[in-house]
Design a protein that fits this description.
about 400 residues, Isopropylmalate Dehydrogenase, 14 helices, about 45% helix, binds NADP nicotinamide-adenine-dinucleotide phosphate, binds magnesium ion
Length: about 400
């Protein structure tokens, strides 16, 4: 066998839970360890370990990404009441992704993995549409009042310096109704903008941003202004040099244009728009198991993962001794995304080439009709299509990879 390819800097490896933890090990054993001379800075974010360490391990993993700049993460359980019972937890620990995102101050970008035999629901989409969702504020951090009797609703800002409050009448209620108060913060919007410009430049794709600033002349206009100021000050030259474009349009116009486009752009969305549109894109492209996700921080840290969760139902089958047909594509692409970024920072093109070979081998496997159960449901029917078990799917990818080495 040929010599192993050297990965210069340790990879921050963040392990997780359930079925994705099982596949994580298989992917490492079959597609990575045999070929790479790679050191990992390993963090076990399996729920048991998080409980044992009072969640300190999650915080440590985020700091490791700050140290090495690049990490790869398996899916993890966000505990709810049922999980507290199931695992006998000390408490209902917060979402690890939320904790890591908070520390790295990052934005999550998602992109679909495309295969020739998996046609998107929108037939003119030829390239992936990447989506970035602002993950702070708006309706996700709001105050609401249910109005049950006549009265006046006002928006009041009381300055901390004791100067005159600003008051605006929202509505003089005669009938019952509802009120909502939302906010956002300039530094958060700016971080989001920087993460979006960073990602678009990294991927060499156009950036589209959309709000409704014709209606929301202060709130949405602030988002638009911050993006524009950031672009003019720090990105215009770099974008021109890379031959990519920053494009602002109204959200409704953006939706209409996206549907008519062939894809291949980053679509930056406000929090609610991103919540809705990312699920629309995932479903239109085919499967959550074919969706990658990367957390990009404005400080230049990158964390790669799959967009899906721990695939709990499959794990219970696995525990019961049944064979599952679970899709490892998004996990594999999390690893290759991480290796490619590492290669770029380390200036090791051989690592990049190897990661590309894994991706090609994985897509060829799907295109040759070797499929997991979720793909059987979304891939063009063909007599050659064959459903395989979780491990066999990875074996086929390894077989295709071997042919490229
Ligand atoms: P999920 O793990 O994404 O799975 C939901 C369903 O989607 C599965 O039951 C399966 O459908 C299908 N699916 C998802 N990934 C698949 C794959 N790789 N291969 C084949 N099918 C796949 O969501 P969940 O079951 O709602 O959540 C389970 C746990 O994941 C929760 O504890 C949640 O907290 C956690 N979670 C973690 C993350 C993260 O760490 N990033 C994200 C989301 C959720 P069928 O059952 O129909 O086959
Ligand atoms: Mg959603």
């Amino acid at each position: 066998m040929a010599e192993k390819i050297k990965v210069k800097t340790p990879i921050v490896e963040i392990d997780g839970d359930e079925m994705t933890r099982i596949m994580w090990q298989m992917v490492k054993d079959k597609l990575l360890i045999p070929y790479l001379d790679m050191e990992t800075d390993y963090y076990d974010l399996g729920l048991k370990k998080r409980d044992e360490t009072d969640d300190q391990i999650t915080i440590d993993s985020a700091h490791a990404i700050m140290k090495y700049k690049v990490g790869v993460k398996c899916a993890t359980i966000t505990p709810n009441a049922a999980r507290v019972e199931e695992y006998g937890l000390k408490k209902q620990w917060p979402s690890p992704n939320g904790t890591i995102r908070g520390i790295l101050d990052g934005t999550v970008f998602r992109a679909p993995i495309l295969a020739q035999n998996m046609k998107p629901s929108v037939r003119n989409w030829k390239k992936p549409i990447h989506i970035g969702r602002h993950a702070y504020g708006d309706v996700y951090k709001n105050q609401e009042i249910k109005v049950t009797k006549p009265g006046v609703a006002e928006l009041v800002f009381t300055p901390a310096d004791g100067s005159e409050p600003i008051r605006k009448v929202i509505q003089e209620f005669k009938d019952p109704g509802i009120i909502q108060g939302i906010h956002n913060l300039d530094p958060s919007i700016k971080s989001f903008a920087i993460a979006c410009f960073t990602y678009a430049l990294d991927q060499k794709i156009d950036l589209w941003f959309s709000t409704k600033d014709t209606i929301s002349k202060t709130y949405d206009a602030e988002f638009r202004q911050i993006f524009e100021d950031e672009y003019e000050a720090n990105w215009k030259d770099k974008f021109e040099e890379a031959g990519i474009e920053y494009f602002f349009t109204l959200i409704d116009d953006a939706v209409a244009r996206v549907m008519k486009s062939e894809g291949g752009m980053l679509w930056a969305c406000k929090n609610y728009d991103g919540d809705v549109m990312s699920d629309m894109l995932a479903s239109a492209y085919g499967s959550l198991a074919m969706m990658t996700s990367v957390l990009v921080s404005p400080h230049g840290y990158f964390e790669y993962e799959a967009a899906h969760g721990t695939v709990q139902k499959h794990y219970y089958k696995h525990l019961a001794g049944e064979k599952t047909s679970t899709n490892s594509m998004a996990l594999i692409f999390a690893w290759t995304g991480c290796l490619k970024k590492r290669a770029e920072l380390d200036e090791t093109p051989d690592v990049d080439e190897f990661a590309q070979k894994i991706e090609d081998a994985a897509i060829e496997t799907v295109e040759s009709g070797i499929l997991t159960g979720d793909l059987m449901r979304v891939i063009d029917p063909d007599p050659k299509n064959k459903q395989v078990y979780t491990e066999d799917f990875i074996d086929h990818i390894q077989h295709n990879l071997e042919k490229k080495l």
